[in-house]
Design brief:
The protein is α+β, with helices and mostly antiparallel strands. The protein is built from 16 helices and 33 strands. The protein is globular and about 80 Å long. The structure holds guanosine-5',3'-tetraphosphate (G4P). Belongs to the TRAFAC class translation factor GTPase superfamily. Classic translation factor GTPase family. PrfC subfamily. Keywords: Cytoplasm, GTP-binding, Nucleotide-binding, Protein biosynthesis. It comes from Rivihabitans pingtungensis. This is Peptide chain release factor 3.
Length: 548
């Protein structure tokens, strides 16, 4: 097991930086950019707020987001619409902690697993997974972990709600290991639970942190710390429990994995913390772990070459687009992850797909309390670019060099609807609306080779409701969505252009072009998909599409 000293030696270099590092490299090295992921109701919103409280970004819980603003059921959509401003600001939060700049990205909290979530996870360097310890690993947790695994994103785990009756802690670790296929290294260990929750024991520091039901005010966040599991003070406090606890700790030390930074960075092992978000308990330990262990921004693949965060020249890519405060004006905010260099207010940056310079004067950043005009940003930071629809998900920006960052995926939709409109005179508005919503990534739009009705594809059913609502309010179009006989979509490609042409002709009733102009095969059922793949062995069927 690691001594506290070794524990410290593991940390990434934080400032003050050695002279060898340039200012840009130093700024990049002190960035930590992570997403917070969980099954709904595990406590993501609560924990987010407590992280901000501990960092000092806010003084009192409840000031950043309304309790429920991070999640919404279908019926809440209208309300969310009103609160767009809040949700834009609160989906990315930046704060300082221990001389580091932390960027925290929220993932959509609703039941429908949307593509947005996948793409947010492409923009982070680590993820914080929150598990409701009474429930264990849930459906959404599994899906999210699988996405993190695509990019071997390091995961920190928080077992939440120990102020309640929860499941056996060893059993929970076992479940994480077996179901999520990731080794667990407990860093803290809970002492009791529910009414007899006493605190946590820090396995690396040999300290017991005593639990006290939390306040929502920043300067009341200190809990009593007792050094050493053999400290007699513990026997005084919990005379009946200590013998049992010491045995349990011995058992845990013997049976569980030790923390291993390399395995963590490779996404193979997760440090596990226990606590209660609502009581602020266990939260500081997570923040420390993120700062000490989560990686700073790493080099990114930009097709022509790898781009290093410490390069002097600015570059970045857009991973998410969100309609802005005033839907009537249809302005949107493109969320860009900075990949290298320094972004400075007013600088010119090149929009590489359109091969056009844009002046970035009103670019915003996302300080915890508010949106504010950004003066400068570095690799790992997220900046928001207001625009009227010329920026798409996956677009890359630079100071001129032709870079195209890869790995920002569109996924084969699982749900399909065909679109009709009540008033045929509005067909132009419909097409314009769907084109823009398609670019925004709100839904995928397919134009069949044969047939007039557009087809919408989504990953979660809520996406359709959002699109219907936005078509009406923003484009004045009343659209009707009908179920249609499509099982799934596959983007197709083939080295032999003539063969692809033959494929298109032979399957004219099943092919379509998506919003980015890519050819897709829409399979009516699984059998058909298999048969078609067998019949056209040279055609490649892709489950994901990256930026065209
Ligand atoms: P989410 O964003 O992951 O969906 O979860 P959220 O933070 O909204 O928390 C879901 C519920 O769990 C909330 O209760 C919240 O108060 C509760 N919760 C979060 N952390 C803890 C904890 O450490 N201990 C306990 N006991 N509960 C916790 P709710 O009933 O949905 O809302 P409310 O009635 O408390 O407002």
């Amino acid at each position: 097991r690691l001594s506290p000293l070794q524990f410290k030696a593991f940390s990434f270099p934080g400032p003050p930086m050695s002279d060898a590092l340039t200012a840009v490299a130093g700024e990049a090295a002190r960035r930590r950019t992570f997403a917070i992921i969980s099954h709904p109701d595990a406590g993501k919103t609560t924990l987010t707020e407590k992280l901000l409280l501990f960092s000092g970004a806010i003084q009192m819980a409840g000031t950043v987001k309304g309790k429920k603003s991070g999640k919404f059921a279908t019926s809440d959509w209208m309300e969310i619409e009103k609160q767009r401003g809040i949700s834009v600001a609160s989906s990315v939060m930046q704060f300082d902690y221990r001389e580091h700049v932390v960027n925290l990205l929220d993932t959509p909290g609703h039941q429908d697993f949307s593509e947005d979530t996948y793409r947010v996870l492409t923009a982070v360097d680590a993820a914080l997974m929150v598990i409701d310890a009474a429930k264990g690993v849930e459906a959404q947790t599994i899906k999210l972990l699988n996405v993190c695994r695509l990019r071997t994103t390091p995961i920190v785990t928080f077992m939440n709600k120990y102020d309640r009756e929860v499941r056996d802690s060893l059993e929970l670790l076992d479940e994480v290991e077996n179901v999520l296929n990731i080794r667990c290294a407990p860093i803290t260990w809970p002492i009791g639970m529910g009414k007899t929750f006493r605190g946590v024991y820090h396995l690396m520091n040999d300290q017991v942190m005593l639990f006290e039901a939390g306040q929502d005010i920043a300067d009341q966040l200190v809990s009593e710390v007792i050094q050493g599991i053999d400290n007699p003070r513990l026997d005084e406090l919990f005379p009946l429990e200590m013998a049992q606890l010491r045995m349990e700790i011995e058992l845990v030390k013997g049976a569980s994995n030790e923390f291993d930074l390399e395995a963590f960075l490779a996404g193979e092992l997760t440090p596990v913390f226990f606590g209660s978000a609502i009581n602020n308990f266990g939260v500081r330990e997570i923040l420390n772990a993120l700062v000490d262990w989560a990686p700073p921004p790493s080099p990114r693949d930009a097709s022509v070459r790898m781009v290093d965060p410490s390069e002097e020249k600015f570059s970045g890519f857009v991973f998410k687009i969100q309609a802005n405060m005033d839907p009537k004006h249809r302005d949107r905010i493109a969320f860009m992850r900075v990949c290298s260099g320094r972004f400075e207010r007013g600088m010119k940056m090149k929009h590489l797909r359109l091969n056009r310079d844009i002046a970035a004067s009103s670019v915003v950043t996302f300080m915890a309390h508010d949106r504010e005009i950004v003066e400068e940003a570095f690799a790992g930071d997220i900046i928001g670019i207001p625009n009227h629809g010329n920026i798409q998900i996956g677009d890359s920006f630079s100071e001129g060099e032709a870079l195209q960052f890869t790995g920002i995926p569109f996924f084969a939709p699982e749900l399909f609807r065909s679109v009709r409109i009540r008033n045929p005179l509005k067909i132009k508005q419909l097409h314009k609306g769907l084109q823009q919503l398609g670019e925004e990534g709100a839904v995928q739009v397919f134009k069949p080779a044969n047939g007039a009705d557009l087809i919408l594809g989504a990953v979660g059913v809520l996406q359709f409701e959002v699109v219907a609502h936005r078509l009406q309010t923003e484009y004045g179009v009343e659209a009707v969505f009908d179920p249609c006989q499509i099982y799934t979509a596959r983007w197709v490609s083939c080295d032999d252009a003539r063969m692809l042409n033959d494929f298109e002709k032979a399957l004219v009733n099943n092919v379509a072009i998506d919003a980015a102009g890519s050819l897709a095969y829409l399979a009516p059922n699984r059998v058909n998909l298999d048969l078609t793949q067998e019949r056209w062995p040279k055609v490649v069927f892709h489950e994901t599409r990256e930026h065209a």
